[in-house]
């Protein structure tokens, strides 16, 4: 394998500077001569900041100040002319024009945690006859490289409430997430001390031999996917350092701050920088049936800081133009305020954001009515949002997978990208 | 004539279109000035045949009005999440002075017993004293950390004066109470009530609760602290209403009271003038009122109210309470004698 001069110099320079500290990153760059160019010029990445439990659109990206439903917080102007967001997000307000589009007209019709999450994970309602892959698995398949040594899909969900592992559905285990639930370091990826490195390699060779015999004259996407998953074990085992933020300069760690969400955003940046196509960081738990305003004062502070630093860091490293940063959860929250000063589940008119790769910063699509009860203009569903995400990444949302003889488009049937937010 | 909490009886139930966050009562009357979620002050005469809220006019607040006091029968001062204090002429319901008082949300106002000093607390974690006549800031205190131990913004909800005006207490989200000598600004005591703050590190990774109400006993020796107990599921206000009573000068906790009848947040507290009972009120989905024997810590009487109560006002003889809250105002009496036969029938609430 040849190493391009540019790729080598990039890797060497970045490694020397200590800003590209993960060993796996350098390993990966050197294996793939044009890898560095791909990351910055073609390789698309996604970071999904999953607002688990359902963040309030009124306290984030679609404020209704002064209305009976508006709550106590003011709307503040953003860097995009005419676009206001909640005063709880002052740092993001300064970055909207440069980085972020807002979609204010989602109607996803399901305000149940499980049902809503399924819709927003897969971009379509559940079909009992088929298990659809989620966005992470689709991106892993479409953006990952077959021989990649880094994980294709990493999902961090350390809180327990509403925890969902994600699914690769009919795409098979090759595209299943590396799921971090107990700590910010992947568990069980180290070689057991009782097994020598040579033994470990021998076992892989033996497993591969047996698998080939088993799959001979059998055709199955799932079997192929399983085999590919095993073939990537050695690389995944070596990716441990990507999750170690101690590898980052103290100044960088300080910027992201002390919260777990902030630290996971830093890990997400390290992962996409190393070539991981899809990283999900779940920030739980926004389900504020009581004390909605106090809850959002806490959680929005965390979101505002972590998201802003992440966008800045990606931009400073030249990664933002190829990294799409998303925020949404399973639904939004009711405009009406209940007796506990809470807001309940609401899927009829809520918001998502898209930042970076392929996105027209400052765009604000769709409108809700004056009290935020209904979509007044530009109603879109989860399928449309997924079509927009895929288009932003340069993936044809109408491309079809085949499950047996059944064609399945990447985004739901009839879904259309929201052109207003795309460059 | 002494009051009798066991005689508590609701006499008026008035629906209002907004959420009443705070209240002040014009002395010797049924006229209430309440601050509201519609960013306005309103006046309502609850003894009128058909009580109707009358909004104050002019350029008022730009967010929820969370504190109101009367500095004279005709002068009200309000505080809001917009950080402003506004002085109002009550008769013509127009503003007369505005002061940018705090950088962040004002949570509560109280007035000193002599009516000369207003104290405000806000999420900038400052307590500020104001000359009630001139609007001049007299002093500011802070003993409250802006960030919780879990790296999130803290909040300063509660403030109260002692009955003689000598002391002032402030209480924050994580359960820290500081007690100040009003004239010197010196901190003279502190107590900790961490049981009112719930941090969920595992399931939901955020917090809820905090000190929401404070009251000194009439002799200033005790301080009562109110909020909500430890919550399992912090999506909801799903824990017993909780009060702790301290002998703050000795640094001793006298009572730790978890209400076994109401799961709710304590929003307001008041001692009776004799110091025998402590009134607490608040709510979750509905509201409640509890009278507690200060000596034994046992409830004397408790009852449900039809709405989450945000603040109370008592009459001069401490036998009638005016509760304001979620789309309702409720008047209740607890006199020794039977309620007068002319007492108005409860009205059905018109709120949402």
Helix content of chain B: under 10%
β content of chain A, as a range?
Answer: 15-25%
Average pLDDT reading of chain B: 94
The tally of strands of chain A reads 16
**Secondary-structure class of chain A:** alpha/beta
* Greatest interface (CB-CB under 8 A), with counts per chain: A-B, 38 and 38 residues
Backbone shape of chain A: globular
What is the secondary structure topology, with strand pairs?
The complex is a heterodimer of chains A (423) and B (352).
Chain A: H1 5-17, H2 23-31, H3 35-42, E1 45-52, E2 75-77, E3 84-86, H4 90-93, H5 96-99, E4 100-106, H6 113-122, H7 135-143, E5 153-156, E6 178-180, H8 197-215, H9 221-231, H10 233-237, H11 250-256, H12 260-273, E7 278-284, H13 292-316, E8 323-328, E9 332-333, E10 345-346, E11 350-356, E12 364-365, E13 367-368, E14 375-377, H14 382-392, E15 400-403, E16 406-409
Parallel strand pairs in A: 1-7, 1-8, 4-12, 5-6, 5-7
Antiparallel strand pairs in A: 2-3, 4-11, 8-11, 9-10, 13-14, 15-16
Chain B: E1 9-25, E2 31-36, E3 41-45, E4 54-55, E5 65-72, E6 75-80, E7 84-89, E8 94-100, E9 106-111, E10 117-122, E11 127-131, E12 137-141, E13 156-161, E14 167-172, E15 176-181, E16 187-192, E17 197-200, E18 206-209, E19 213-216, E20 222-228, E21 240-247, E22 252-263, E23 265-271, E24 277-283, E25 287-293, E26 299-305, E27 309-314, E28 320-333
Antiparallel strand pairs in B: 1-2, 1-28, 2-3, 3-4, 5-6, 6-7, 7-8, 9-10, 10-11, 11-12, 13-14, 14-15, 15-16, 17-18, 19-20, 20-21, 21-22, 23-24, 24-25, 25-26, 27-28
Quick structural summary:
Chain A has 423 residues and is α/β, with parallel strands linked by helices.
Structure, described:
With 423 residues, chain A is of the alpha/beta class. Chain A has one domain: Alkaline Phosphatase, subunit A (3-Layer(aba) Sandwich), CATH 3.40.720. Chain A is 35% helix and 16% strand. Chain A contains 14 helices and 16 strands. In chain A, strand 15 and strand 16 form a beta hairpin. Chain B is mainly β and 352 residues long. Chain B has a single domain (5-333), classed as Methylamine Dehydrogenase, Chain H (7 Propeller), CATH 2.130.10.10. Chain B has no helices and 28 strands. In chain B, the strands form seven sheets. A six-stranded antiparallel sheet of chain B has the order 4-3-2-1-28-27, with no helix packed on it. The N and C termini of chain B lie far apart (38 Å). Classes of the chains: A alpha/beta (423), B mainly beta (352). Chains A and B meet through helix 13 of A and strand 1 and strand 18 of B.
């Amino acid at each position: 394998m040849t190493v391009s001069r540019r790729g080598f110099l990039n890797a060497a320079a970045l490694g020397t500077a200590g800003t590209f500290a993960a060993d796996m990153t350098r390993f990966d760059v050197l294996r793939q001569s044009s890898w560095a160019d791909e990351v910055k010029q073609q390789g698309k990445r996604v970071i999904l900041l999953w607002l688990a439990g359902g963040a309030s659109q009124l306290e984030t990206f679609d404020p209704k100040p002064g209305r009976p439903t508006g709550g106590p917080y003011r709307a503040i102007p953003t860097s995009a002319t005419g676009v206001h967001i909640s005063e709880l997000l002052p740092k993001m307000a300064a970055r909207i024009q440069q980085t972020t589009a807002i979609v204010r007209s989602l109607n996803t019709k399901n305000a149940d945690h499980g049902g809503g999450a399924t819709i927003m994970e897969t971009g379509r309602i559940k079909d009992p006859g088929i298990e659809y892959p989620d966005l992470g698995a689709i991106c892993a398949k479409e953006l990952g490289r077959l021989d990649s040594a880094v994980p294709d899909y990493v999902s961090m969900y350390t809180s327990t409430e509403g925890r969902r592992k994600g699914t690769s559905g009919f795409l098979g285990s090759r595209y299943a997430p590396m799921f971090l639930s107990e700590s910010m370091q992947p568990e069980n990826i180290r070689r057991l001390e009782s097994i020598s490195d040579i033994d470990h390699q021998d076992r892989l060779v033996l497993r591969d031999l047996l698998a080939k015999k088993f799959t001979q004259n059998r055709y199955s996407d799932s079997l192929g996917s399983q085999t590919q998953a095993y073939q990537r074990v050695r690389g995944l085992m070596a990716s441990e350092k990507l999750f170690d933020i101690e590898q980052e300069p103290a100044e960088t760690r300080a910027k992201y701050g002390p919260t777990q969400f902030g630290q996971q955003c830093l890990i997400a940046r390290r992962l996409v920088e190393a070539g991981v196509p899809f990283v999900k960081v779940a920030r739980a738990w926004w389900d504020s049936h009581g004390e909605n305003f106090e809850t959002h004062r806490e959680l929005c502070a965390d979101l505002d800081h972590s998201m802003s630093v992440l966008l800045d860091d990606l931009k400073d490293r030249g990664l933002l133009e190829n990294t799409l940063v998303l925020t949404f959860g399973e639904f939004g929250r009711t405009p009406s305020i209940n007796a506990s000063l809470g807001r309940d589940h609401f899927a009829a008119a809520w918001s998502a954001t898209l930042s970076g790769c392929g996105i027209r910063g400052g765009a604000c699509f769709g409108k809700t009515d004056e009290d935020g009860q209904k979509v007044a203009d530009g109603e879109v569903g989860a399928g449309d949002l997924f079509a927009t995400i895929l288009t932003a990444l340069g993936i044809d949302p109408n491309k079809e997978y085949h499950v047996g003889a059944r064609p399945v488009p990447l985004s739901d049937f009839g879904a259309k990208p929201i052109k207003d937010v795309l460059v | 004539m002494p009051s009798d909490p066991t005689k508590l009886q609701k006499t008026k139930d008035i629906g209002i279109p907004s959420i009443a966050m705070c209240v002040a009562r014009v002395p010797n009357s049924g006229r209430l000035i309440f601050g509201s979620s519609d960013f306005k002050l309103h006046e309502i005469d609850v003894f009128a045949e058909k009580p109707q809220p009358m909004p104050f006019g002019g350029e008022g607040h730009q967010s929820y009005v969370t504190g109101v006091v009367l500095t004279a029968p005709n002068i009200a001062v309000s505080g809001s999440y917009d950080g402003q204090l506004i002085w109002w002429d009550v008769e013509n319901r127009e503003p007369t002075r505005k002061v940018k008082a705090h950088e962040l949300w004002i949570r509560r106002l109280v007035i000193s017993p002599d009516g000369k000093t207003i104290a405000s607390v806000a999420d900038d974690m400052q307590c500020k004293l104001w000359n009630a006549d001139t609007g001049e800031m007299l002093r500011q205190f802070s003993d409250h950390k802006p960030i919780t131990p879990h790296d999130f913004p803290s909040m300063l909800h509660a403030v109260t004066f002692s009955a003689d005006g000598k002391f002032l207490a402030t209480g924050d989200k994580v359960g820290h109470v500081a007690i100040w000598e009003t004239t010197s600004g010196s901190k003279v005591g502190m107590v900790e009530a961490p049981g009112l703050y719930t941090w969920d590190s595992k399931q939901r990774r955020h917090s809820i609760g905090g000190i929401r109400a404070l009251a000194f006993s009439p002799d200033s020796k005790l301080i009562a602290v109110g909020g909500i107990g430890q919550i399992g599921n912090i999506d909801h206000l799903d824990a017993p209403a909780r009060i702790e009573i301290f002998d703050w000068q000795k640094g001793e906790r006298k009572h730790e009271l978890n209400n076994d009848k109401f799961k709710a947040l304590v929003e307001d507290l008041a001692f009776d003038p004799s110091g025998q009972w402590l009134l607490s009120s608040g709510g979750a989905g509905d509201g409640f009122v509890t009278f507690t024997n200060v000596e034994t810590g046992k409830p004397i009487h408790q009852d449900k109210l039809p709405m989450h109560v945000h603040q109370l006002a008592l009459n001069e003889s401490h036998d009638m309470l005016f509760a304001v809250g979620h789309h309702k105002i409720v008047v209740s009496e607890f006199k020794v004698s039977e309620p007068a036969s002319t007492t108005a029938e409860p009205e059905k609430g018109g709120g949402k």
